[in-house]
C-alpha cells in the first residue's frame, strides 16, 4: 500500500517541479512543450490511478495503524453523525451561494470602476454584502454546533 502513496507523492512533486521549471524558464517552454505533454499526462494518469487504488484497497490500511485507531475509537451514533452533517450544511450551501453572488457582482463592479473610479466604495459595499452570506452560514453552523 505504501507504493501507492509514494507514487502519488512522486506525481505531485514532479508536476510542481515541472511547473516551477516552466515558470522560471519561460523561453524554454516552447522547446519543452513537445515532450512535456505526454510526460504530464502520464503523471496525471498515474496519480489518479493511484488515488483510485487507494480508495479501492482501503485508505485505512494505508494511512493508519491498527493499534492507534483501536485505542482512540469513539462510538458515534447515527443521530449524532446526522447532526454533525446537518451542522456543516449551512456553511457549505452559504459558501456556494456567496460564490455564485460574488462572481457577477465582482465583474460588474470591476466594469463600473473602470468607467467611473469614484464608484469603488459603493462596489466594495456590494461585494461585502454578497460575501456576508458565507459569514452568516458560518455563524449559523457555530450556533448549531453549540446545540449538539
Structure description:
This protein has 148 residues and is mainly alpha-helical. The chain folds into two domains: 70 residues; 70 residues, Up-down Bundle (F1FO ATP Synthase), CATH 1.20.20. It is built from six helices and no strands. Helix 1 runs antiparallel to helix 2 and helix 5 runs antiparallel to helix 6. The longest helix has 38 residues. The chain is flat, with a radius of gyration of 24 Å. The relative contact order is 0.09. The model has no long low-confidence stretch (mean pLDDT 77).
* Secondary-structure element order, N to C: HHHHHH
Total DSSP E strands: 0
Q: Which blocks of ≥5 consecutive residues have pLDDT under 50?
A: none
Ends: how far apart? Answer: 37 Å
Structural class: mainly alpha
Describe this protein with a few key phrases:
148 residues, mainly alpha, F1FO ATP Synthase, 6 helices
